[in-house]
Design brief:
The protein is α/β, with parallel strands linked by helices. It is built from twelve helices and nine strands. The chain binds fe (ii) ion.
Length: 265
Amino acid sequence: MVDLHHHLVFGVDDGSPDLETSVAMVEMAVSDGITHIVATPHANAEFHYDREAHEAKLQQIREALPADTASAITLGLGCDFHLNFENTTSIQKSKETYQINRGPYLLIELADTSIPQRMDELLYDLRVLGLVPILTHPERNATLQRSRNRLAEWLRTDLLVQVTAGSITGNFGKTAERVAWELLENNWTHFVSSDAHNLTRRTPRMSDAYKLVAKRVGEDIAERLFVTNPLAVFEGRALSAQPEPKGVFEEEEPSFWKRLTERFR
Ligand SMILES: [Fe+2]
């Protein structure tokens, strides 16, 4: 499996606190069947993003790994890019700072409860820069949990969506779990990632979620969301054709009352 969202770089955000924890997180990921990890430190009001410093720490992690773990994993660098004013200004000057492995893809994160007022404009601006935004864990955003309308609008503009493995297994509560499954069952998601922060509550494991998705939605879909699609992103390639998200492009079904009144016109 390929994990696109993991707070592996130590001492830079609310993820791994030290080198030892980072090494243990990689070991846990490898034992879970993960072959590639994109380390994605936060860039938000609380945590400053310094690509060079993050790359240096990632290299320290690579060098500290036991040989058998090092040979089983490939580590890359990206960013958990918060859509705030400071970041969206900064990215205009230096988009390569935030990209996943310097390819076109960018993880974008919303606040837990709200959506930026200028969201459509912000997405447009990122695309003008040649970036391909991937929205992280919409199933955990309170506004998107209440209504799917905004997400449907963004899917019509080909926005890519990442769901958290822990939401699928119920670790983020019943609502996030229900919404995650709704997104999976309707082809509204393109990637599942760990969003790992530590070794206890938010771990780098994804195999339990993979097994559930394979059982409930199909092995081919699990393979696409956990392996094929994220590997294309890791390597900076275009995704293969994706199934059409259900209920996004079709005309809405006329309601019972509308159908009834039309019959008697
Ligand atoms: Fe994150």
